[in-house]
Design a protein that fits this description.
alpha+beta, 5-stranded mixed β-sheet, 2 domains, Wheat Germ Agglutinin (Isolectin 2), domain 1, 60s Ribosomal Protein L30, Chain: A, 6 helices, homodimer, 191 residues
Chain lengths: 191, 191
């Protein structure tokens, strides 16, 4: 069972290194990305949207060229475990999701995914084994077209910057005469 | 000049592989993360907040255990090129930022950072050379305390899930009797 270009055990090592643990969501996520890529026309430039903000994002970053920092991976939170891989200019793409009907066959995965047992009491070893056995068997693919407003612009305009008169740091001038932090949107206090 | 545990050329290889290019922001970002880590008390469990959504996020993901998918890296957009590395429970930490006064000495970096010349006309080779020469010389560190509402909770409550009666996918029940996508928050059309 391969995940992208990796054998399952290589992928487990990789996610331990990058994500910090072999979380079930990272394993399911790996197979999800793999299935999505296999259903995309070859050679396309694509972007990815994750419908959840956790594990899945890291699986995308490890298995595709898309990262949060290069802007080719975005999160659009719908609370569902799903990804959309699509042509960044036309929006044509595929969405891979967990198919609850197919999940009936995979009892251990269902315990984890549907939270049938409290997380602290789940048998993680058993869940991981079944995730690797199942691959993407409990997932489905649908064709989608990503809406215009979420597509990449072919030519991005360079945005002017300025030094904020209050904090003296550089910010995008479009935010007004002070940076957003000095306008009150700040997560910390100086000490 | 080292960036985290990497020599500059190793780091350049790493970012080309992960981020897709040796973007100046990834190089400045690497030194920024490195400076932050060197100013943090050793052995602390920390989280990271990026004040911008681009390059910098990938530098954090490559040089610390914090990723977008494991939840230890977050974005809090203020339009400024800065990171906050902090104790995830107490909020005590450091903020590293580009110090515009110190930047005067580094003309090529300033051309890039202040967008003094249109991006298409910048001499990227020269900028990258100076970024590597300067290291974190044009950055400053300030002590901060991250606000209570952005800190990690010691014990997270497990949230119940349900199958959405409309799309039949699993979602967090706290969003109501349908998932957020079926409630209208959806980035695609099925085709």
């Amino acid at each position: 069972m391969k995940i992208g270009k990796y054998k399952a055990d290589e992928y487990l090592e990789l996610i331990k290194e990058f994500h910090g643990s072999t979380a079930p969501g990272m394993i399911a996520g790996g197979f999800m990305v793999d299935l999505g890529l296999r259903n995309l026309p070859e050679g396309e430039f694509f972007d990815v949207i994750c419908e959840t903000s956790h594990c899945l994002m890291d699986a995308v970053q490890l298995l595709t060229p898309c990262t949060i920092g290069n802007g080719w991976l975005k999160s659009f939170y719908t609370s569902r475990f799903a990804i959309i891989i699509y042509n960044k200019y036309t929006g044509d793409g595929v969405r891979v999701y967990i198919d609850t009907e197919k999940l009936e066959k995979w009892k251990d995965i269902k315990v984890w995914y549907m939270k049938e047992i409290d997380k602290t009491k789940q048998d993680t070893g058993k869940i991981i084994s079944q995730l690797i056995e199942a691959g993407s068997e409990y997932m489905s693919v649908m064709k989608v077209k990503v809406k215009e407003e979420y597509l990449a612009k072919k030519k991005k305009k360079s945005q002017p910057v300025a030094v904020c008169p209050s904090c003296k740091e550089v910010y995008y001038l479009k935010f007004g005469d002070k940076c957003p932090a000095c306008s009150g949107n700040i997560p910390y206090d100086a000490v």
